[in-house]
């Protein structure tokens, strides 16, 4: 069975992204932060103070993600922190899956649809690259429809 990790690794390789490339890893970190801000934007809180904190966090983290994705800032995980980073990334997967489970979201199917949509970003096996190295979307590309999975 091909895992989501394997599909993502193959997709990045097809896009010309290489393990150990400082620029590629920095852009990927920026993309990861951008996705987290998208998650934060879905949250609602029952206090004005909490809403302000979430809004500030979205603004600040979104700003940082854009700086990183554009190449204005280069970030990296130093070797002595990689075990901690791996643990945090795995914990992020576990807690994200837990949220989906508790909200009765069909994460298995959603993962496959999102990965299929990413595959559709390749045109004749080649990526559309944006300035800064982020993978773009070809004309006519559509995001995965997840509306029936919630």
Total strand segments: 2
Overall pLDDT level:
94
Q: Tell me what portion of residues adopts beta-strand conformation.
A: under 5%
In helices, the fraction of residues equals: 55-70%
Count, helices: 5
User: Which class do the helix and strand fractions yield?
Assistant: mainly alpha
Largest sheet: 2 strands, antiparallel
Low-confidence segments, ≥5 residues, pLDDT <50?
none
**What order do the helices and strands follow?**
HHHHHEE
Q: Which strand order do you get reading across the main beta sheet?
A: 1-2
Note the overall shape.
Answer: globular
Distance linking N and C termini: 25 Å
Alpha carbon gyration radius: 17 Å
Structure description:
- With 150 residues, the chain is mainly α.
- The chain contains five helices and two strands.
- Helix 1 packs parallel to helix 5 and helix 2 runs antiparallel to helix 3.
- The longest helix has 23 residues, at 48-70.
């Amino acid at each position: 069975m091909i895992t989501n990790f394997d599909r993502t690794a193959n997709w990045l390789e097809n896009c010309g992204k290489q393990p150990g490339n400082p620029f590629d890893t920095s852009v990927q970190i920026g993309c990861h932060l951008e996705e987290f801000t998208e998650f934060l934007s879905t949250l609602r809180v029952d206090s004005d103070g909490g809403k302000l904190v979430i809004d500030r966090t979205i603004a600040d983290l979104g700003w940082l993600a854009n700086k990183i994705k554009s190449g204005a800032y280069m970030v990296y995980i130093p070797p002595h922190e990689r075990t901690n980073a791996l643990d945090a990334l795995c914990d992020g997967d576990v807690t994200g899956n837990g949220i989906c489970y508790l909200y009765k979201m069909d994460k298995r199917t959603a993962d496959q649809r999102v990965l299929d949509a990413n595959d559709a970003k390749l045109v004749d096996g080649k990526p559309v690259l944006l300035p800064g190295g982020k993978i773009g979307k070809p004309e006519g590309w559509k995001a995965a429809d997840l509306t029936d999975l919630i």
